[in-house]
Design brief:
about 250 residues, 2 domains, alpha+beta, five-stranded antiparallel β-sheet
Length: about 250
């Protein structure tokens, strides 16, 4: 795709940088994003031109034929990663970062990212998973969603959180977004670790909501750090790409 996929390709490979190199690294990534955008546009234009000027025939030059095939494969790979073509058609692909499902009972269509483990930089060593989603009534994906929901699920945290646990995102080491839970749930579970010893195996779920402008602000960031209670974490390259993919699908209406 012309906008979404170059961002994916760069952000999936985001390095871990120190504070002293952050500004230079962000500038490099912006330049690389722009270069990749231009390259994808060029590839699509070449594919269109070659296909138009070189109809399939027995005397078609083998080198040119191979070039067409390679360009087609590159475009197909990019579309599979996005789960959608540049013009908005859905692509059924297990490699897609974003899933869309219609729930008949609720009569709503949900667009969501796959749950991914949070990259914790300070605090709890227990598993934390996050995913983003938005929904439309019925089966039509039309316009901007009213809100975007973030689900954080934990395991073995033993009641570290509650219904008042704030979540703060810091965007590119500057702007901040602070959210309070829309809902909180804790499942109590005890697991035996020895003949007479039991340990807490509680599972906690925290749900936060963004307005669409707040989510767009988050999705534009190159680096996102978060604070959840005593835990500090950062969004990985894949998670940043997920945010941009969600935003792009709203733009395309798919």
């Amino acid at each position: 795709m012309r906008i979404l996929l170059p961002l994916m390709l760069v952000l999936v490979a985001l390095p871990m940088w120190g504070d002293e190199n952050q500004a230079a690294e962000l500038e490099r990534l912006r330049a690389e994003n722009a270069e990749l955008k231009a390259r994808v546009v060029q590839l699509e234009a070449q594919l269109t031109e070659l296909t138009r000027s070189s109809p399939a025939s027995a005397d078609m030059d083998s080198t040119e034929s191979q070039r067409v095939a390679e360009l087609e494969q590159k475009v197909q790979t990019l579309e599979q990663l996005a789960g959608v073509t540049a013009t908005g058609e859905k692509v059924e692909s297990k490699r897609a970062l974003i899933k869309t499902e219609y729930y008949k009972k609720a009569n709503e269509t949900v667009v969501r990212t796959q749950p991914e483990r949070m990259s914790i930089t300070h605090g709890s060593r227990h598993d934390h998973w996050l995913s983003f989603a938005y929904a439309y009534p019925g089966e039509q994906l039309d316009g901007e969603p009213e809100k975007v929901t973030l689900f954080i699920q934990t395991q073995l945290t033993g009641g570290d959180y509650d219904a008042k646990t704030q979540l703060t995102f810091t965007l590119d080491a500057a702007d901040k977004l602070t959210l309070t839970p829309a809902s909180y749930d804790r499942v109590h579970k005890r697991s035996r670790t020895g003949a007479t010893t039991t340990a807490s195996n509680d599972k906690e779920t925290l749900v936060y909501t963004f307005t669409w402008p707040q989510f767009q602000q988050l999705a534009r960031a190159y680096e996102v750090e978060g604070t959840l209670g005593k835990v500090r974490f950062k969004l990985t390259g894949d998670q940043l790409a997920d945010l941009k993919a969600l935003r792009e699908r709203v733009r395309l209406g798919v």
